[in-house]
Amino acid sequence: MDKSQARKMVWEKLRHVALPDSRFHFEFQSYIPDFIGSDQALVRLIGLKIYQDSRLLFITPDNCLEGLRCRALQDGKTLLVTSYAIRRGFYVLEPERVSPADYRYASTLDGMERVGRPVTLYELKSLGKIDLVVTGASVINLQGVRFGKGHGFFDLEWGMLYMVGMVSPETILVAFVHDYQIVDLNLEATLYDSVCDMIVTPSQIIAMENPQKPTTGILWEKLEPGMLESIPPLQELKQGKTYHPHELQDHEPTRN
User: Does the pTM of the predicted model rise above 0.70?
Assistant: First the structure.
């Protein structure tokens, strides 16, 4: 089964438990929804030792992760997030710089940009390595192969963070999904598809053995038309693309 078929199969079931988005209704090709039971999945995730030991988390801007972003701030953790479709790049949310009264607002898509601190890709290096990455998904199989909405934004986020040395194959990657989004199918992962270490759902935690994570950085020839022009961190990275992955962490980009 190819990616589009797997997504279509899952989206038909997901509609029964998904929470509609104020902008996109149930158009799952435009967003990854929150779902009934996400509060139960959150309890499972924050009980994990890797979460409790994490200092810096990258949490994608998916609707289902709004509660996690808020809880992480309450727990005193620093968050790295991206704006929708990465169009305005990366933001850092630091609990000591955000009023506790604003934690809930800061965890939303609009709030994170108003309350958070915008950072360039190269300014991110001062934060150190990311301890834990949490993402939503459209579909994921029992081997941890994860597919998103089909636009490749998470692949780009991982690739950019990899190229500046903030994530590596050893970085723990957790998929936060509803049980309906798990499929017992053989999904073929490409060089840039992410395989998760763990799946957390309202009812269970599934751990993978030796998941393979992308180490290709950004595959410039695979970018969809318009991506380079609309994603500032890609433009920033393009200036230093002659470096090999992870060498960028020790170099400033070439300025034209």
Answer: yes
